[in-house]
Amino acid sequence: MFDNLTDRLGGVFDKLRGRGALKEEDVRSAMREVRIALLEADVALPVVRDFINSVTEKAVGQSVLKSVAPGQQVVKIVNDALTEMLGSEASDLDLAVAPPAVIMMVGLQGSGKTTSTAKIAKLLKEKHGKKVMMASLDVQRPAAQEQLKVLGEQVNVATLPIVAGQMPVDIARRALQSAKLQSFDVVMLDTAGRLHVDQQLMDEMKAVANEATPKEILLVVDSLTGQDAVNVAQNFSEQVPLTGVVLTRMDGDARGGAALSMRAVTGRPIKFVGMGEKMDAIEPFHPGRVAGRILG
Ligand code: GDP
């Protein structure tokens, strides 16, 4: 993850740190290289522009250039700006409502939505001691409800019994009723995906959200699709009140553009990253740690 970016930035920073004194032109030339490195990592252009402007402004200040270790200071400024770009602080799930708290999972087909639903359910159960129920509202894909049931058995999390022919809003209502009766803490609703963002999908999500009043609406996107993932997130966030993003397939993403631009472009925090196909391959997203990893 981020290997190329780490290598490129490492080269720039070694040069900066190697000098005793720094002139404004040295900083500007380093920033030109950082700019290219970010663009090669597939970070959205406006995000790169803002980042470079803000870092340059701080780094060419006299207090930096005249300090004892100017190179070190510039590296710190870049680190802080990267952390800010990634979202500053880790955003935990907010489940503070009278139970059951509803988490609605949305996203395009194949993004890793069903897998992430089961991973998060497992995490909530094992790490936070929550009693979790999952329900699939995907009546589009014949095997979808069955897929969630199989994953539920695998991670030992309850799933709502399947009733053939029920519509998504009705399934959501039944899930909530059932969860209340059985004192579940959390209900996870895995909604239907589509190949593209379309109006029917958005309308269905809005209807489900109205019925279930979710505390969290998490959009699942595939990091390997780079800026497309960011565009999809922007599209969704204009129509449904997303509370966060789950970025999947980060285990295979060497560039990291989606992770780096998501917060700045959509205003929504990345809450989890998927790191593989296994059920425990999910991690909370920590901007500071990720920035540290990028800087090597
Ligand atoms: P959905 O259509 O959005 O529900 O997608 P699925 O949950 O069925 O996932 C599609 C495929 O992506 C499955 O083969 C998953 O195992 C795989 N997948 C999901 N998340 C990750 C991840 O973080 N890393 C990797 N390598 N594969 C993943």
UniProtKB/TrEMBL annotation:
Membrane-related topology note: Peripheral membrane protein
Enzyme Commission number(s) of this protein: 3.6.5.4
Major subcellular site: membrane
Localisation: Cell inner membrane; Cytoplasm
Keywords: Cytoplasm, GTP-binding, Hydrolase, Nucleotide-binding, Ribonucleoprotein, RNA-binding, Signal recognition particle
Binding site for GTP: 107-114, 190-194, 248-251
Domain SRP54-type proteins GTP-binding: 269-282
Catalytic activity: GTP + H2O = GDP + phosphate + H(+)
UniProt superkingdom: Bacteria
Domain notes: Composed of three domains: the N-terminal N domain, which is responsible for interactions with the ribosome, the central G domain, which binds GTP, and the C-terminal M domain, which binds the RNA and the signal sequence of the RNC.
Function: Involved in targeting and insertion of nascent membrane proteins into the cytoplasmic membrane. Binds to the hydrophobic signal sequence of the ribosome-nascent chain (RNC) as it emerges from the ribosomes. The SRP-RNC complex is then targeted to the cytoplasmic membrane where it interacts with the SRP receptor FtsY. Interaction with FtsY leads to the transfer of the RNC complex to the Sec translocase for insertion into the membrane, the hydrolysis of GTP by both Ffh and FtsY, and the dissociation of the SRP-FtsY complex into the individual components.
Record-stated family: Belongs to the GTP-binding SRP family. SRP54 subfamily.
Protein name in the entry: Signal recognition particle protein
Source lineage: Bacteria, Pseudomonadati, Pseudomonadota, Alphaproteobacteria, Sphingomonadales
